[in-house]
Amino acid sequence: MIIKMVSSCFLCTALALSASAAFADVKLKGVSVPEEVTFSGHTMVLNGAGVRSRFFIDAYVAALYLPEVSTDADGILASGSPLDIRVVIISDLVTADRFAESAMDGFVRSTHGDLGPIRPQVETMIKTFRNSLSVGDVFDLVYNPDAGTEIYRNGELLEVVEGLDFRSAMAGIWLSDDPVQTSLREKMLGL
């Protein structure tokens, strides 16, 4: 009887430890990437995360959160479901102007140069990046179907940009067929 109780306790402890490990945050370049996030009442799970590198410099950690895990980039881009793209600055070489320029380049790539229909929304988002940046700044680009794309910086809501087309183009910066970095796209898609 005692041996049976000890075996049961050991099994319960092992299951509890493995469950807590399954929900532990991921660490990338010293950045803790949570397994799930909640914004505007929408809980989303980590789909994948990676590091944006440019000219051999690690610029930021990017993570994709969705209601459920998916490797289908086209489906994610076409969907109207909630998503969060979290960007954590990890280099002091990432200035506000460089970050804004990189985002604009990403929009141009994502839309294949056809920014016309969403230009005002893109300019609104780019404007939010024009303030000084610091290592450790966290941007959450959250699509809330009830409001639009909510732009948070360090947990503070800065702006809401309406439009499903904008959501697709914004997510396309990282997930389109012409992303800012192919290896980062694969990591965010969990490939």
Automatic annotation (TrEMBL):
Domain of life according to the entry: Bacteria
Signal peptide: 1-24
Every Chalcone isomerase domain range: 27-190
Keywords: Isomerase, Signal
InterPro entries: Chalcone_isomerase, Chalcone_isomerase_3-sand, Chalcone_isomerase_sf
GO molecular function, one term: intramolecular lyase activity
Name of the protein in its database record: Chalcone isomerase-like
